[in-house]
Design a protein that fits this description.
- The protein has 2 domains: 235 residues, 60s Ribosomal Protein L30, Chain: A (2-Layer Sandwich); 39 residues, no CATH class.
- Helix content is 40%, strand content 14%.
- The chain has 11 helices and 4 strands.
- Strand 2, helix 5 and strand 3 form a beta-alpha-beta unit.
- It is flat, with a radius of gyration of 22 Å.
Length: 295
């Protein structure tokens, strides 16, 4: 009687391919390490846990700030147009932009990739984007996980999650308690849509059956990483508070009681008129999702 052997490979999980990927990650992650911060004696990639040497940060009362996020359904746009080399930048950006608004400097990052089947070319492109995002954020890629999950994800489908850790001197932590009436509100331009609202965008594209080359280019633009700009401002103590505008954030999260209403009134009446929100939303939605949508 012939024996039947059950193996990971037969179940849809290729350990040999996964090992090749780990070696690749270990190689490219070194490009994110900084001298005098991470010891090259630590072997983070492939170990059980990741190590980061905090002793050389020279901080008196360090506070750890953490953030986790994903890219959402922008991944479906990447799949649709088969462009995967920038989606990793989005992943890093969505995480580190939440750290810096609290005054923290990102120090390291971990990623989680869940995928139907590891295709080295595709997965390497995703990882290259993550490394680029880490370099833009001045933080180290110290580890992660790639999970091959046949039966959970359909063919070619995948998901990304990121985990970022930052550090800030306790006295320099940005909180809403520092914000007061008559503070000046400044905005830094975005690079585009970033990584929010893509369920709505994809629905509009599906209904209108249009995805032009121009639209593809605009939609896949990576999330802008604001680390260098904001950290320069916080280092010089030039800002009292900061908000990462994704699904809201300015009035909801960082202004204290008694300040929010003044901010709204000041923004609407003094800057652009009392009907600003109606006109702004109408102009935005008519151009993006059709003239009747905003109603």
């Amino acid at each position: 009687m012939r024996k039947t052997y059950n193996t990971y490979k037969k179940s849809g999980v290729n350990m040999a391919t996964a090992d090749k990927l780990v070696k690749y990650i270990s190689k490219i992650a070194k490009n994110t390490y900084k001298k005098n911060t991470e010891s090259r004696n630590f072997k983070n990639i492939g170990s059980f846990g990741s190590i980061f040497d905090l002793s050389k940060l020279k901080m008196r009362n360090p506070v750890i700030v953490s953030s986790t996020d994903g890219v959402g359904t922008k991944l479906e746009i990447a799949n649709q147009i088969k462009k995967f080399d920038t989606i990793g930048i989005d992943l890093v950006g969505m995480c580190v932009n939440d750290l810096i608004v609290q005054g923290a400097k990102p120090i390291f990052f971990l990623d989680y990739i869940a995928i139907n089947k590891i295709k080295l070319n595709k997965t390497k492109k995703i990882l290259n984007g993550i490394v680029k995002g880490c370099k833009l954020s001045d933080c180290a890629l110290v580890g992660g996980e790639t999970a091959e999950m046949p039966g959970v994800y359909a063919k070619d489908k995948f998901d990304l999650a990121g985990f970022a850790i930052g550090v800030v001197e306790k006295k320099n932590l940005l909180t809403k308690n520092k914000i007061k009436n008559n503070d000046i509100i400044l905005a830094i331009p975005s690079s585009g849509i970033h990584s929010n609202g893509f369920s709505l965008i994809r629905n509009v594209i599906k209904k209108n059956k249009v995805l032009s080359p121009f639209l593809k280019k605009e939609l896949i633009k990576p999330t802008k990483i604001y680390v260098k700009e904001i950290n320069k401002l916080t280092k010089k103590k030039l800002i009292s508070g900061c908000a990462n505008i994704t699904g809201g954030g300015l009035l909801e999260r960082i202004v204290g009681e008694g300040v929010g209403e003044d901010c709204r009134r000041g923004l609407l009446e003094r800057s652009v008129g009392e009907d600003c929100w109606r006109g702004c939303w109408r102009g935005l939605l008519e151009r993006i999702v059709g003239e009747d949508c905003w109603k």
